[in-house]
Amino acid sequence: MYLHLGQDTVVAFDEIIGIFDLDTSTVSKTTRDYLKRAEQSGLVVNVSMELPKSFTVCKDAQNKTTVYISQISSATLLKRTGFIQGLSNL
Length: 90
Fold this sequence. Notes:
Elements: E1 2-6, E2 9-12, E3 16-21, H1 22-25, H2 29-40, E4 44-46, E5 54-59, E6 65-70, H3 74-81, H4 83-88
Parallel strand pairs: 4-6
Antiparallel strand pairs: 1-2, 3-5, 5-6
């Protein structure tokens, strides 16, 4: 399955490491430093030029990490994965 992050960007579910809310996660200096290093290393892809609301960290089959910055909220992206719905079926 694939997750649509916005515009023309989709990622496979099995590549997703985490989906994070920019407002709450960037309170931590560690997260800000991680995003800064990822940006400097060329690992960040801006999915849209609109106001960013979330970022998704992915790792592909070759262990290449990519950080996608999206205008779609982390809650909406999480709903699109069906992860929470899958937990309720346990």
